[in-house]
Amino acid sequence: MSLFQGFHAEDFAVFQVQGLDARMEGIKTMIRPKLELLGQHFAPTLSLATGDEMFYHVAKHARRTVNPPKDTWVAWAADKRGYKKHPHFQIGLWGTHLFIWYAVIYESPFKETIAEQLKQHIDQVMHMVPGTFHWSPDHMQPASTAQAELGKEGVLRLIQRLGDVKKAELLCGVTIPSDDPILADGDRLLKQMEDVFAVLAPLYKLSGSDQKVTVQL
After folding, report:
1. Which of 72, 167, 178, 210 is the least buried, fewest Cβ under 10 Å from its Cβ?
2. pLDDT above 70: percentage of residues in the chain
C-alpha cells in the first residue's frame, strides 16, 4: 500500500482560507507533505524517462508578504538549485483542480530555442500528445484548453508566442477536477500521473534540455 493517500476535499478547501498566514499553515500541514512524497516518488521515474537526473522542488511561496497563494506545486528539473530556468515537470493544486504539467515558464532563457524545436517537429508533437491533454500559456492562471479544441494551428500559435513574447509560457499536460473520485485513490492517482509523465517525457526530450538541444524520439 502506498504512503501517498491522494488528495481530498479538505486539501482543495485550503485555497478558500482567508489570509496569508492561515492559508500557508494549511498548505504546509496538509498539502506540502503530499507534494514531498510525490517529489521523492517521481524523481527516479522522470530521471529514467528523460535521461537527465531530476531533482524535485516543492513550492515554498517564501516571497509572499500579503496575498495568499492561489495554487501550490512540486516541480522536477535537471538542476538541484532550482527549476524555473529549465524545462520542467509540475504536479500541483488550484482550488478547482489538480494539474500535471510539462512546463517552460517565463524565467527560462532557452524559450526561443525550445519554441524553434517544437515548431520544427509540430507534427510529432501533435502525434505524441493526445487530444484530451491541455495546453496553457500562463502557469499563473488556472484556465487551459484541450489540444482537440486548439488543433494544430492553435498549438502552433502558443509555441510561436513562447519564442516571441518575453513573458510568454507554455504548459502541456492534464487537469483533473477537484471532485473526480480518482484523486482520493492514492494508487490509482499515482498510476495516472505516471501515465501522463510517460507522454510528457518525450515532449521534454523533443524540446531539448537547455542549450544542448537534441531530438530523441
Report:
1. 167
2. 94
Dihedral, CA atoms, 157, 159, 164, 168, nearest 10 degrees?
A: 100
How far the first Cα of the chain sits from its last, in Å, is 34
Per-residue model confidence (pLDDT) at position 75: 98
Rounded distance, CA 48 to CA 210, Å?
A: 18
Query: What's the mean pLDDT when you consider all of the chain?
Result: 93
Q: Residues 6 or more apart from 56 whose CB is under 8 A from it?
A: 38, 39, 40, 42, 43, 74, 75, 76
- Report residue 2's pLDDT band, with 50, 70 and 90 as the boundaries: low
Residue 54 located in a structural domain: yes
Name the residue among 114, 112, 122, 97 with its Cα closest to residue 178: 97
> Three-state SS for 27?
helix
Residue 83 lies in a domain: yes
Mean pLDDT is lowest, of 2-6, 101-105, 109-113, 185-189, for 2-6
With respect to residue 3, please indicate whether it lies within any of the assigned structural domains: no
Residue 197: how many other CB atoms lie within 10 Å: 22
pTM exceeding 0.90: yes
Number of domains into which the chain is organized: 1
CATH of the domain at 77: 3.30.930.20
Inside any domain, residue 50: yes
Q: What span, in angstroms and rounded, lies between the C-alpha atoms of 203 and 182?
A: 25
Is-contact 30 10, C-beta < 8 A? Answer: yes
Expressed as residue numbers, the domain containing 125 is: 9-207
